[in-house]
Amino acid sequence: MIRLQDIAEMAGVSRTTVSNVINGNTKRVSQKTIDKITTILKEQNYVPHMGSVMLSGHGSRIIGVVLGFSYAHGMQSLQDPFVGELIGTIQMETEENGYYVMLIGGESIQNVVDIASKWNVEGLLILGYNEEQYRSLSRRLNKKMILIDAYPEGAYTFQNVGIDDYSGGYQIGEYLYSCGYKKALFVAETERDSDYYRWMGFKQAMENRGDSAVAPDI
Fold first, then answer.
1. Considering the entire predicted model, what is its pTM?
2. C-alpha pair distances (Å), 195 with each of 124, 152, 163, 166
3. Which chain positions lie within coiled-coil regions (predicted)?
4. What's the rounded Cα separation, in Å, for the pair 4 and 15?
């Protein structure tokens, strides 16, 4: 296994300089030296030891992805096409930017606190949490957090990446009407969150056409 000292000797620089480049502390390193060291690291397939990276004080470069549920739509969460594609995209983007992804089971908030603390994650992307769960976690863990597809009771008081469910429902209603359907039945699993907003958009589209949509079958 190639060592940090070996990389330094190949580049003709000190071990400290190589360490600084690996950890992103390059304010006092010329671009020429950065490029040279980076090229050697790639050629030698050098992988930094995670323990050393975490102890360096420059962060673990780990992004925790919290899954707040084990099952979705009658299947394990990772079998769900939406969840699988989402996590795959997150992994691709984080690795392209020099970070790593760690999946964390989020049904137990204490489990999230324990793992995120032990591994010193840089931040958390959280799927499947409501506002109450988020607040409970944020009181016990001082990390940057972004929720995915979360629906607050009132105004947003947290960072969230979501889907315009209302618009999606509206477009479905418009499409069905354009196909000649004058009455429609909207079937949903719940009366809240994404199901509720999709229903409202769907209902509005049908009503705008002067026709009716049947109340959701829960």
1. 0.64
2. 25, 14, 12, 9
3. none
4. 6
Angle at 207 between CA 204 and CA 208, to 5 degrees: 85
Mean pLDDT in residue range 19-35: 85
Q: Which of 141, 161, 181 is the last residue of a domain?
A: 161
Q: Is the pLDDT of residue 218 over 50?
A: no
In this structure, the answer to whether residues 78 and 157 fall within a common structural domain is: yes
Tokens of 198: 């999709």
pLDDT band at 95 (very low <50, low <70, confident <90, very high): confident
- CATH number of the domain bearing residue 213: 3.40.50.2300
The answer to whether 186 and 196 are in contact (CB under 8 A) is: no
Q: How far is CA 30 from the centre of its chain?
A: 34
Q: Domain limits at 201? A: 165-217
| Residue 74 shares a structural domain with residue 149 | yes
* 186 in the same domain as 102: no
pLDDT reported for residue 52: 61
Average pLDDT over residues 189-194: 80
CB 178 within 8 A of CB 211: no
List the structure tokens of 27: 């304010």
* pLDDT computed for residue 53 by the predictor: 59
Query: What's the rounded mean pLDDT across residues 8-19?
Result: 91
pLDDT of residue 193: 80
Q: How long, in residues, is the chain?
A: 218
Is there a single domain that holds both residue 105 and residue 180?
no
Q: How many domains does the chain have?
A: 3
CA distance 91 to 57: 24
